[in-house]
Here is the input.
Amino acid sequence: MIVVRDDDYTDAIERLESAGFDRSVPNRAPPPEIMEDHPNPQQVLKDINAGYKRLDRSCAVFDYPQGDPAEKALQVYLIPNSFAHVLQEDIPHSSTRIGDTAQTTRFQSYGSLYYPLEQALVESFVKAAIEEERDAGFSAWGESLRSWVSLMTGYLEVDNDVLDMCPDRQAVDWYSHNFGRIHEANFGPINRRITKRLGSGKEMPIDMRGSPL
Here is the structure.
């Protein structure tokens, strides 16, 4: 996924196309061995895509250029920042040199590319999830956003205070109720133990973050 400022969205589409990326549609088809035995495979795909309506209306999708077989099935999602909520106004539009690298509390930058760190990424997912719930209710895209936040709280150094400095109180409250302080007060601390098999009782000597138990 690539996020650009809304003002740069049209230009980014043109640049990707000029670089050999073909405009396409999302490829969410299940494996052929599943589809070939289904009585109505087109309906299956239609039902899957229905859970991503807001995402698909808001972004442009491209297939990778032909050439490398390893990239044959890969796709690029180009998303405007008004949908992703990841870029802030303090990020410059360009860097002086492509080789420049820098790190802030929210991003690791390489030239004009900015890779969001944990805080920025969680904030982006949370704000997108709030909008999805408001506009679409339950959806596959909304559940994907929730699962990404869940994985980050499990495997990365993302704790209850990750959004404490976020000025958006709705985002802070949503995170607290679903993953943070309020959630842990109601249901207890997140269980980060790793079992070899569900119900086996055999646990790894470290948790999801690599810390010894």
Strands lie at 2-4, 22-24, 60-63, 75-80, 101-103, 107-110, 113-116, 193-195, 203-207. The radius of gyration is 20 Å.
